[in-house]
Amino acid sequence: MADPRRTRAYRKLQQQMRMQALGRLDNCWICGGAIDYAAPAHSPDAWELDHAKSVQHHPELALDPANCRSSHASCNRSRGADGAVMALGKRRKRLRS
Ligand SMILES: [Zn+2]
Predict the structure, then answer these.
(1) Which residues have a beta carbon within 5 Å of ligand 1, which is an ion?
(2) Which of 56, 72, 86, 92 is 20 to 30 A from 31 (CA-CA)?
(3) Contact criterion met (CB below 8 Å) for 76 and 41
(4) How far is the CA of 64 from the centre of ligand 1 (A)?
């Protein structure tokens, strides 16, 4: 099956989710830390769309807003496709403004 994240519909959803997250100033759902919405895409503290149920295991939920979560790019990466949340108690530096 083709990766649903490579579709135009997904990119549109991603933009909508980012706008909503920015409006609410969502924290990262994985580590609870503040997200740097001004950070360039893919930098570690930047916002990234994550999925409560991984796209790899639940591709049918990739475009479901209810499955979408706000995360740091770095947390999203370290979590990986198996959905295992990394060690608790991981501390992050406070973002400087
Ligand atoms: Zn995080």
Answers:
(1) 28, 30-31, 33, 72, 75
(2) 56
(3) no
(4) 21
Find the 71 Cα to ligand 1 centroid distance in Å. 5
Q: Determine the Cα–Cα distance for residues 47 and 45; give it in Å rounded to an integer.
A: 7
54 alpha carbon to ligand 1 midpoint, in Å? 16
- Position 87 scores a pLDDT of 45
Its pTM stands at 0.78
Q: Do residues 76 and 86 touch, judged by C-beta distance below 8 A?
A: no
Kindly tell me the burial class for residue 60, based on how many C-beta atoms sit within 10 Å of its own C-beta (0-12, 13-18, 19 or more). Answer: exposed
Count, in order, helices (H) and strands (E) of the chain: 2, 2
Residues of the chain falling short of pLDDT 50: 86-90
